[in-house]
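In this section we turn from sequence analysis to structure. A common task in structural bioinformatics is to predict how a protein folds when a small molecule is present, because the ligand can shape the pocket around it. The inputs are simple: the amino acid sequence and a SMILES string for the ligand, here NAP. Study the lines below before reading on.
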Amino acid sequence: MKAIYLEAVNSPFVLIEKDKPTAGPGEAIVQVKAAALNHRDVWIQYGRYFTKDYPAILGSDGAGVVTEVGEGVDQSWLEQEVVIDPSTDWGDNPHAHSNAYKVLGMPQDGTFAEYVKVLASNLHRKPAHLSFEEAAALPLAGVTAYRTMFTKCGLKAGERVLITGAGGGVALFAVQFAVAAGAEVWVTSGSDDKIEKAKALGATGGINYKQENWGKTLKALVGGFDVSIDGAAGEGFVQLVKLAKPGGRIGIYGGTTGMIGQINPAELFWKQLAIHGSTMGTNQDFADMMAFVEKTQVKPVVDIVFPLAEIEQAMRYMEAGKQFGKIVVKVSQ
Ligand SMILES: NC(=O)c1ccc[n+]([C@@H]2O[C@H](COP(=O)([O-])OP(=O)(O)OC[C@H]3O[C@@H](n4cnc5c(N)ncnc54)[C@H](OP(=O)(O)O)[C@@H]3O)[C@@H](O)[C@H]2O)c1
């Protein structure tokens, strides 16, 4: 089979031929039709991810067709169109994952290959309203957005939510899910064009975080937020604390711009804020996210589709940050 290999830190992604995997007990082989990129893949290429198990076949997101099932797996999965839950070994505590927790695509071989081996318990039927490309866009970013916003921050219909960096993969799902849940959605972005695109998806408004004093301007415009969802951290996070309503919740799933600036502790305790760190999601979060997508018929936004052989170019495209929506890879016909 064709697969994309990352030999070592700072090396390019290269196309190789490799033996097709076979299913052991409880496992299934999926012919990957489409895969999607996450910032995680770029961090791994630069050695800036906590798992460092090179060489590797990356890829946490995939949708395809089940071609083989191992012993003990229901045969009715064969030929089914599926989406893969990338999380394994979360553990018993729903509030945080165990040390054994793994994300598909390092240490296990991931979806940047024509076939991938997964636990059959991680298979979900592909929603009929989604193409393989749209379905492949969903798993990692979708479950991260879902858990941060609903499981952790408990966003409800009618509440006002601020989602930062709306052009990001996770952030854009948060925008779509929050709109579908009936919340009043506001965004930040470094691009006015992306704010307009978020509004076209149902956001009420937004502000460019490159603008000086954006936090103050936004506060004057809308008042406070019940919930903020952030993957950027840095100085911007301080603004989220200032923008929170009393009793507000802030969900943080990433740290793209680095260390958080100075926060006045009184703003945290006097307003009785809750800050929820969140990573990926439990298998239950994933199942809930899939049910939510079925019910609301949300369609992931796909910015661009690259052929499998051009993953290196796709990674550089992601780094440039011009995308609005997921960067998808077409793996097999
Ligand atoms: N904890 C988890 O489970 C988990 C899962 C997925 C991702 N992450 C982390 O979350 C972050 C985003 O991941 P992703 O895959 O969604 O990445 P991505 O698609 O590359 O998006 C990154 C986004 O960050 C935004 N951004 C950049 N500078 C910003 C700033 N100063 N203020 C606000 N937003 C800013 C940009 O938004 P605009 O284009 O709108 O300016 C950009 O689109 C990464 O750090 C990633 O490692 C964590």
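The first strand starts at residue 2 and ends at 6. As an exercise, try to locate the residues that line the NAP site and compare them with your own expectations.
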